[in-house]
Amino acid sequence: MAALTAAAVPGIRRAPTRPALRRATRIGAGVAVVVATALVVGVGPFVHGIAAVSPAAIVTGFALIAAATAAAAWRWRVVAAGFGLPLRWRDAFGAYYRSQFLNSVLPGGVVGDVHRAYAHGRPHEQVGAAGRAVAAERVFGQIVQLTLTLAVVLPLAAVQPRWASPLAPLLWGAGALAAILVLTVGIAALVPRSRRALQREFRMLRPLLVRPAALAAIVAASIAVVAAHVALFVVAAAATGVTADPRGVVAAALVVLAASALPINVGGWGPREAAAGAAFALAGLGGATGVATSTAFGVLALLAVAPGAFVLLAGRRAAARARIGPGNVARREGAGDE
To answer: Would you put residue 132 in left (φ > 0), alpha (ψ -120 to 50) or beta?
Structure first.
């Protein structure tokens, strides 16, 4: 959560250097993952994934991302209301499109969320609370996404012998990550400074955590978001010629989406392609096929969030008109008449 609100909190002189170093590290890691993936499977799968995108797949992608954006905007409104921040549906829907576009075209994958939080909180003079609301909304979504991933992958690994052995490393890895998370929270609870921070965040989230209706809405919206993205991945797989068991493709899609949440990417590219190649290779479908599918998915997702560019431009034009003001506009028009 601190990453979204750091800009609103004054720091020491060296503070700006550290975020810059972290951003450079994440971007470098994302580029390294893409290069390593290309060295393993070659450039061909990337080219195949781009060429496989068809008009029908693009139209389907627009519809699926529109549904995902609507659900995510609903989730954001529920969380923002819990923080006492009003948010109209139209504003949430447009801002979320803009956020997704910025996350897709800029390194790191979080710039759009930072912009969304600042734009929401500035009119209310509550940028910090808006940042926490955006961070909480994203965290809730990732928790639901990881829970769904395990809920689908675990039964599939148990009843599908073909997937059981390949998924064993994934299951052990998920268990290790869960243990590390629990250990980290436990250590943080023992340190006075971090314990106070956890207590402060819990108090801010309490209005949401004690409202079953709000939690149900957040979970339902998050499931809709994940389902739409999984469906888009299945569309990308079909476009690239994958004819495997749909259950296996869905499981691979969930794994790939979980990997794409890692903040070491360049415009969304990086861990997603590596995870897709590994998942498809372990499933016996070929790493090159996984990279091609992930590439097609990335292209479709990028095209589908393009409306966010129009929202961004419209916002800039509105801000420019507001800075000029009616009086200046009248004077400019009068000067032009002379």
So the answer is: alpha
